[in-house]
From TrEMBL:
<keyword id="KW-0573">Peptidoglycan synthesis</keyword>
<dbReference type="Pfam" id="PF01177">
    <property type="entry name" value="Asp_Glu_race"/>
</dbReference>
<dbReference type="InterPro" id="IPR001920">
    <property type="entry name" value="Asp/Glu_race"/>
</dbReference>
<comment type="similarity">
    <text>Belongs to the aspartate/glutamate racemases family.</text>
</comment>
<feature type="binding site">
    <location>
        <begin position="200"/>
        <end position="201"/>
    </location>
    <ligand>
        <name>substrate</name>
    </ligand>
</feature>
<comment type="function">
    <text>Provides the (R)-glutamate required for cell wall biosynthesis.</text>
</comment>
<dbReference type="InterPro" id="IPR033134">
    <property type="entry name" value="Asp/Glu_racemase_AS_2"/>
</dbReference>
<feature type="binding site">
    <location>
        <begin position="48"/>
        <end position="49"/>
    </location>
    <ligand>
        <name>substrate</name>
    </ligand>
</feature>
<keyword id="KW-0961">Cell wall biogenesis/degradation</keyword>
<protein>
    <recommendedName>
        <fullName>Glutamate racemase</fullName>
        <ecNumber>5.1.1.3</ecNumber>
    </recommendedName>
</protein>
<comment type="pathway">
    <text>Cell wall biogenesis; peptidoglycan biosynthesis.</text>
</comment>
<feature type="active site" description="Proton donor/acceptor">
    <location>
        <position position="199"/>
    </location>
</feature>
<feature type="active site" description="Proton donor/acceptor">
    <location>
        <position position="81"/>
    </location>
</feature>
<feature type="binding site">
    <location>
        <begin position="82"/>
        <end position="83"/>
    </location>
    <ligand>
        <name>substrate</name>
    </ligand>
</feature>
<dbReference type="GO" id="GO:0008881">
    <property type="term" value="F:glutamate racemase activity"/>
</dbReference>
<dbReference type="InterPro" id="IPR015942">
    <property type="entry name" value="Asp/Glu/hydantoin_racemase"/>
</dbReference>
<dbReference type="InterPro" id="IPR004391">
    <property type="entry name" value="Glu_race"/>
</dbReference>
Length: 278
């Protein structure tokens, strides 16, 4: 009896400096269950959020190019890192012939829904100071008050959470203090009501952030928008087309202890095995 070949499934690689891109992967898997997903964490270059722009560009390009040389059936590249996307997308798009999807701060949708015209931006220090981010605010939220908080410590908290370590609520409170002030001290019609999670690590802490700031604050992340963008490309490309049942992996750029510490979390994101990028 001859076996009927399964249709080719697009292979998508989700890339971040650390575990943050898993928040994008979750949204993408949900929307595109027929696709094959690999995850690529540059844990050897982590963190990106406090590094100079040229260093982030060089590193992100170098890692993705090394991945493409080793895993040759990738259909769509997703830079699931705001810090890298706001800097490296033009160069990556010039380099790769396949689509490169990026994630940028969701300032436009936040400004569209903010009733009080007061939005917060929570990102890495790098993303907060980038001219790309300032231009987004200027273009889409010029009629809104904005409060921007850049925090590398919050990125670390998300990394720790995925390693099954408790999230320090005092530390979280200290990081979120300027947003808490903006959301509580003014009378209702004037206070902050919408917060952009402009670092892919932060949706992994959405429940904890919501608990500190209160249910009246709308948290906006880029997960479903990126999933829709990936879907757009899956409908327009011809997959390279390896067997859709071939396993995919969570890839890292540096060996343990990071990887061993994540072994309890990774299966929930669909990965039972990891690999090291050479
Ligand atoms: N997850 C990354 C982002 O979206 C950055 C984390 C870091 O490496 O600092 O910006």
């Amino acid at each position: 009896m001859s076996e009927t070949a399964l249709p080719a499934a697009p292979h998508i690689v989700i890339f971040d400096s650390g575990v943050g891109g898993l928040s994008i992967l979750q949204a993408a898997r949900q929307q595109l269950p027929h696709c094959r997903f690999s995850y690529l964490s540059d844990n050897g270059g982590f963190p990106y959020g406090n590094k100079p722009a040229n260093q982030v560009i060089e590193r992100a390009c170098q890692v993705l190019e090394a991945f493409a040389a080793q895993v040759q059936d990738v259909d769509i590249y997703v830079v699931a890192c705001n810090t890298a996307s706001t800097l490296a997308l033009p160069r990556l798009r010039r380099h790769f012939t396949r689509p490169v999807v990026g994630v940028v701060p969701a300032i436009k949708p936040a400004a569209e829904i903010s009733k009080n015209r007061y939005i917060g931006l929570l990102a890495t220090p790098g993303t907060v100071k980038r001219s790309y981010t300032k231009r987004l605010i200027q273009e889409f939220a010029h009629d809104c008050q904005t409060v921007c908080v850049g925090s590398s410590a919050l990125v670390e908290l998300a990394e720790r959470k995925l390693r099954q370590r408790p999230v320090d609520s005092q530390e979280l409170l200290a990081i979120l203090a300027p947003l808490l002030t903006a959301s509580k001290t003014n009378p209702t019609p004037d206070r902050l009501d919408t917060l952009v999670l402009a670092c892919t690590h932060f949706p992994l802490l959405a429940a904890e952030i919501q608990q500190v700031l209160g249910e009246h604050i709308r948290l906006i992340d880029s997960g479903s928008a990126i999933a829709r963008r990936i879907e757009y490309w899956t409908e327009r490309i011809e997959p390279i087309g390896l067997d859709p049942k071939l396993p995919t992996y969570a890839w890292f750029t540096k060996t343990a202890p990071e990887i061993a510490e994540l072994s309890a979390a990774l299966p929930a994101f669909g990965f039972s095995e990891s690999r090291i990028l050479r």
